Amino acid sequence: MSSLNFPPPPAGLTGWPWTLDKDRLPRAWSQETAPRLTIITPSFNHGRFIEETIRSIILQGYPNLEFLVFDGGSSDETRDILRKYDPWITRWVSESDGGQADAINKGLAQATGSIVAWCNSDDYYLQGAFDAVASAFDQSSDSFFAGQVLNFIDGKPGFRLVAPKGLESAELIRFWERKVVWHDPGLFFPKSVIDSVGLLDVSLRYAFDYDFLLRVRSRLRPHYLDRPVACFRLHEVSKTVAQGEWLIRETAEVSRRYWNLEGMRYSAHARRAVSEDLAVLGTALIVRGNSRGISLLGEALRNHPFASVRHVCAVVIRRVLRSLARIVGFSG
Questions:
Q1: By C-alpha distance, which of 189, 248, 241, 246 is closest to 215?
Q2: Nearest alpha-carbon partner for 191 in 149, 226, 224, 145
């Protein structure tokens, strides 16, 4: 990466990815020895976040990087930021598209890297992430790579570590067993497996990554990276937060696609899991004063009354205990 005229961080912002930690510079890869890495960033109206994403990719200092950005025609400051970093982005476009999966597919179809990943425009990579992935690829080019991810709520301090596990097992299909953990920003795939299993399913809005991972898992085993490689941002308009109901439904539908491959017939278990999730989400929305929670909770109760009531009671009990703890603490 050329540092000539590289944009300084906005005023008052320091630390990664605004400034480099000189003690954590990556391995001295050369253009010839570094496996080519393609990073795809889908974007839409994330102007307040995307500069952090861009800097976390460029400032890795990785010498054989292809960086592709596909913006869905944002109406905020996104395009101004893309122009600002244009010399360091391999290619970017801003035009209407068919959603996140479609934007990522544009990148997958054009990618020339031996390793390919996507990073949403509200997430960012940690310093040294590409070095860790490239080193792992040197050792195990017939695997896909799963690193740890730090979840955080935008505007609040603290992180929660998400460490991947169980991706090689049939439990990946049995999502209701809650034994498998992964996070999109921590996943990196050999380009060869993408050529083999095909692109993302654009008919899916929320669980296209789950469907893709199930196809990849049928060809390759995971190589776990024992370190955080990325940060995942939760905020009020992110799909994970704002539209969790549809994510739950699509996950169940995608899982059903692959049951025959494992000789499974677990529709009752899956229905229970979906009902439990809808009950939890519905109760949380009701507590926040969102009337949409009532219909979700009603659907959960109709589908699996016992499981739904059990989860509602658990939520209520936790809230009562927290209230009592605050009262006792105040009295003390």
A1: 189
A2: 145
